[in-house]
Amino acid sequence: MREELRARRIFHTLWELKKAGQSEDTLKAKDDRLRYLAKRVNLDDPDAVKGYIPSQSRWSNAYKQGVARRAWFKQTILSVMEKGFRLLRSLSVVS
Predict the structure, then answer these.
(1) Distance CA 64, CA 47 (A)
(2) Which helix (H) or strand (E) holds 87?
(3) 3-state SS of 32-70?
(4) Which 8-state DSSP code applies to residue 20?
(5) Are 63 and 71 within 8 A, CB to CB?
(6) Is the distance from CB of 44 to CB of 6 less than 8 angstroms?
(7) Using CA atoms, how far apart are residues 18 and 43, in angstroms rounded to an integer?
(8) Are 17 and 30 in contact (CB under 8 A)?
(9) What is the reported pTM?
């Protein structure tokens, strides 16, 4: 179940990026990196991601920066989506 949820969340993140105009090549690169990271670290825990990326001695600094940007971007999108969901839920309770 956890795998399915993770895949859905990554898909939704990529879908939002596609709607925002990201190219297919960019989406593919982000998908690969997010899936790689998600298998090794909890993407919902920013501190775990921050600790994991620098520990990868075989990665170049440029690659680490790219992975960090994608992880940060995903976390930001998920955070915004969660805040939006909470806002919609609170508005429906008030109405």
Answers:
(1) 15
(2) helix 61-94
(3) HHHHHHHHHCCCCCHHHHHHHHHHCCCCCHHHHHHHHHH
(4) T
(5) no
(6) no
(7) 20
(8) yes
(9) 0.63
Residue with tokens 């690969």: 32
Q: Which residue in the block uniquely carries the two structure tokens 């909890």?
A: 42
pLDDT tens string, the chain, 95 residues long: the values are 578 878 888 888 888 888 888 899 988 888 888 888 888 888 777 778 778 888 888 988 888 877 777 766 666 656 655 655 555 555 544 43
Q: Which residue has the tokens 């989406």?
A: 27
Nearest to 6 by CA among 25, 28, 34, 30: 34
What is the CA angle 75-80-83, rounded to 5?
125
94's tokens: 């008030």
